[in-house]
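Action item from last meeting closed. Structure (159 res):
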């Protein structure tokens, strides 16, 4: 499974929003400029985060995006689902029905060992993402790279 680059962009943008002045809105153009990203594409990701209730969006001259809730209430899975959707990564098409000994009356999604193994792995992946919040990520970044919050605020203050 491969996630789109929009997930990475969304996660970093949320962290950057957490380091700017409280209550300040940030436009998609300014957030995109920080990493030299295409504004229109990042804006689509930010809009998806707003639809998911992770960000709020305000229009107008002082408008832009803000975090809608505290970082400790935003999981990595929330962001991934907002950007990628909630569909399962592995989709059992029940090809065993067409194989030798296959039966149209068997639910192979439930009985197929391959399907069971893939679902188990995906559940573990989803559980791990759901168990980490953006606050956890922020704390780790600030611990390893203590200058990041001030550097981020300074960059946005200059632009």
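Sequence:
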């Amino acid at each position: 499974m491969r996630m789109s680059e929009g997930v990475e962009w969304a996660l970093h943008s949320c962290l950057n929003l957490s380091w700017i002045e409280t209550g300040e809105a940030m436009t998609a153009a300014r957030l995109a400029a920080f990493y030299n990203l295409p504004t229109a594409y990042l804006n689509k990701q930010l809009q998806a985060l707003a639809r998911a209730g992770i960000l709020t969006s305000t229009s107008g001259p002082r408008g832009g995006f803000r975090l809608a809730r505290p970082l400790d209430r935003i999981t990595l899975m929330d962001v991934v689902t907002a950007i990628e959707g909630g569909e399962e990564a592995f989709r059992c098409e029940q090809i065993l029905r067409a194989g030798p000994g296959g039966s149209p009356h068997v639910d192979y999604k439930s009985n197929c060992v391959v399907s069971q193994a893939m679902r188990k792995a995906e559940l573990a992946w989803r559980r791990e993402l759901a168990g980490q919040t953006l606050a956890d990520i922020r704390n780790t970044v600030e611990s390893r790279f203590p200058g990041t919050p001030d550097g981020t605020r300074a960059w946005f203050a200059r632009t």
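Note appended to the action item: Helices lie at 5-19, 28-35, 39-51, 76-84, 108-111, 113-130, 134-144, 148-158.
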